[in-house]
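Section 5.1 Outputs to date
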Amino acid sequence: MLRVNRISFNHASRIKSAFKSTKRNQSSSKLPKKSKSKVHGSDDRNLSTPEILANMGLAFCGLSYLNDDMTYLRLTALTGFSLSMLSQYRLKQMNTSLFRWNATFIGINMAWLIFHTFPSLLKDDSLPDELEKVSEIMKSRSDVLFSNERLKKLFQVGKREIKEQGDVLLSEGYDSKQMFFIERGSGIIARNGIILGRVEAGDFIGCVQLDGIQDSKETSSQSNTELSQSIQSKELEEDVFEDESTTISLNEPLMNGENESLFPEDESDESKSNETVVVESEEMTVWSFDFHDLSRCLDDELKLSLQAYLFSTMQKQLHEAWEMKIQDDQEKARLQQIAINYLFDGVAPDKQGTS
């Protein structure tokens, strides 16, 4: 009897434990469905804030390709990528579709950058041996650096020449049609027979005359344009005469007084040199640039680089000229003191007069 009671008790406990396990399984099976609906939002069609930001990031990436500027393209695309990746990080479960779109845009952007970057990398930007030496001289002479592209563009219109001692590069009062760059050697700058300074390797000669000619051309063309516009406006206000003898052609130079042009074409005053530059060393290697050829290749960037280099070298030349003047004054004072000591046997002139 006792054994039968034990069997029935064990059977009841087994049924009870089985019922509890079945209930536990049912409750656990309901939880994933509830959490799954919250994570993926299958029941709710409204997008969450991270998903909206991710889509905005992809929109930024797409808009970046509507602009040709590579800087704008890179910044906008990277902003979109960062925004999209950050929003996906904030999601409880990564959205595979957004991840695929990000990977697609990253691939397109990398292909775009490679397409625009590789040609510049493969382009031969090296300098010839003769220009490599010129570049080293300019670097040692000034802190203003020329890129290899600008250096080749400038010196492709130049001609390499050898000058001997005593040759005149610029003559005071005469027209100058060339600019020179000294590669090797030295020269003297003089005015009215007085030595003002010296030029050496890395210096340009004749740039002042080039700037004067270009400024005069710009001023003359601007004045001619303004005068033509004023004449045309007056012709609209006044009656037009049909007599061909009284018409004025704007293509012909306007005369003032005794057949003198208001804007003469003679630019010799602007191209005249104020100094004389003579070769001092036994030989001088120079690059000569014709003003006509040089004015055609000088764009704004190259002109600004050349002006900055000239300003830097001019400062050094002025400093050297000032030191030369000080040394000459000190030498004159020293010689004068030697003469005084010799004449007065070491007695100052004021003491000699009072004695």
